[in-house]
Design a protein that fits this description.
about 425 residues, six-stranded antiparallel beta barrel, 8 helices, 3 domains, Thrombin, subunit H, alpha+beta
Length: about 425
């Protein structure tokens, strides 16, 4: 093998020397002989080398283009990730602006800052203070519902407790006003600590799953109609009152922008702000109740269907004249189920129509209020312009000059 490598190296050296010799010879030839010779060499001997050089150039260009393409793809992926984040932030800000448009007045917008310190997981730092009109015990709301309450206020910032705080309490009711109670944080561990409890519900009031719970307005801190959560389960009763488990309407980790309600706005009420949400939840609850009643009617019709085979078998043992009266009973028993289904469908249709009518009525009321306010402002501005453009009344100088002087009353001596 060593001998073969030596022979290869000698052959390469000889070939190199031959190439150098031919290059010198060709360089020394006259011009009329050099050009044809070089042309023939390029077309015969050097063709593989030229092709190799061309392929090497293409490979280098492809490698450079691949790197540039990879950089472009990475930048496009990064921009796409940023676009998704911007879209979610824009959606969040649109919802906050929509909440401000519904409130119209009596609120202070603020950014919610989360602190990672131990003991601060129950509070939020808000970027608005007393200089902006924030007062202690002001409700803090988000587009989805209730967040908490302002606890301490500084000139430029404030601290609010959220519903996970052990001292959080709010008087609440169901959307259909069928039950009242007190909502507080659920004393659980793990994921259950981010749930709420509805306590103090009378035993006679049974709340179904999926029912929306809103603030009742009792207590003077939270106005009526703010969504708090949805019933997801029934807890152990205390004998005289029921307890229910709620899924909160607002999760603390999702809170980035909030609205702080001022005292005069909380006193005026915010029921129309979440009226559509409450009406939709009420309609869903009524439809669920109608479906449950239909299911109960269907279950009540099951024994009637079971009686039919028994009566038919009994009729088989009796004479033929006794079998005829059982036919209408079977037909009436079989027609009981379609009647229950039709009742459920009619109840769902009525609930849907009622929800649509409530939402339309709320929208028309809001539109009428805004139109009347706009018309009042326009009338006041027109009246002010007319008053300013009206000339001043002329002064009656002749009467003033000819008026007799007022003589003082005579003094008594």
């Amino acid at each position: 093998m060593a001998r073969a490598s030596r022979l290869d190296s000698r052959f390469d050296t000889a070939l190199f020397a031959l190439c150098v010799f031919l290059a010198i010879v060709v360089h020394g030839l006259p011009d009329h002989l050099r050009e044809p010779l070089t042309r023939s060499l390029r077309q015969t001997v050097l063709v593989p080398l030229v092709a190799l050089q061309h392929n090497a150039g293409l490979s280098r260009a492809a490698w450079l283009a691949h790197g540039e393409t990879a950089r472009v793809e990475d930048s496009v992926s990064l921009q796409a990730m940023r676009t998704l984040a911007l879209e979610s932030e824009n959606e969040r800000l649109r919802r906050v602006l929509g909440l401000g448009g519904k409130l119209q007045w009596g609120f202070v917008p603020a950014e919610a800052l989360h602190s990672g310190a131990v003991g601060d997981e129950y509070t939020l730092t808000l970027s608005a203070g007393s200089n902006a009109g924030v007062r202690p015990f002001s409700p803090v709301v988000a587009p989805d519902g209730l967040v908490g309450m302002v606890q301490t206020v500084d000139p430029r910032m404030s601290i609010a407790i959220i519903w996970t705080h052990p001292d959080f309490r709010v008087s609440a009711r169901t959307a259909d006003r069928s039950a009242f109670g007190i909502v507080q944080a659920h004393e659980g561990s793990g994921s259950d600590r981010y749930l709420l409890e509805l306590r103090g519900v009378p035993v006679r009031s049974e709340i179904k799953k999926g029912t929306l719970v809103v603030s009742s307005g009792l207590g003077g801190v939270y106005p009526e109609g703010i969504p708090i959560g949805t019933i997801i389960d029934t807890l152990r009763s205390d004998g005289y009152a029921r307890k229910y488990l709620l899924r909160p309407a607002v999760m603390p980790s999702d809170v980035l922008s909030v609205m702080i309600l001022q005292p005069q706005r909380a006193t005026a009420g915010v029921t129309p702000v979440w009226a559509a949400t409450v009406a939709a939840a009420d309609s869903v609850a009524r439809a669920s109740a109608a479906a449950d009643s239909a299911a109960a009617a269907r279950a009540a019709g099951a024994p009637a269907r079971a009686i039919v085979p028994d009566s038919a078998s009994a009729a088989g043992t009796q004479p033929a004249r006794a079998a005829a009266p059982n036919v209408p009973a079977a037909e009436s028993a079989t027609t009981a189920v379609p009647n229950a289904d039709s009742i459920a469908a009619a109840a769902r249709a009525r609930a849907a129509r009622r929800a649509h009518r409530d939402s339309v009525r709320a929208d028309s009321t809001r539109r009428a209020n805004s139109d009347s306010a706009r018309q009042a402002r326009t009338d006041s501005v027109r009246r002010a312009l007319i008053e300013s453009a009206r000339p001043a009344p002329p002064v009656d100088t002749s009467r003033r000059d000819t008026a007799r002087p007022v003589t003082p009353p005579p003094t008594q001596r």
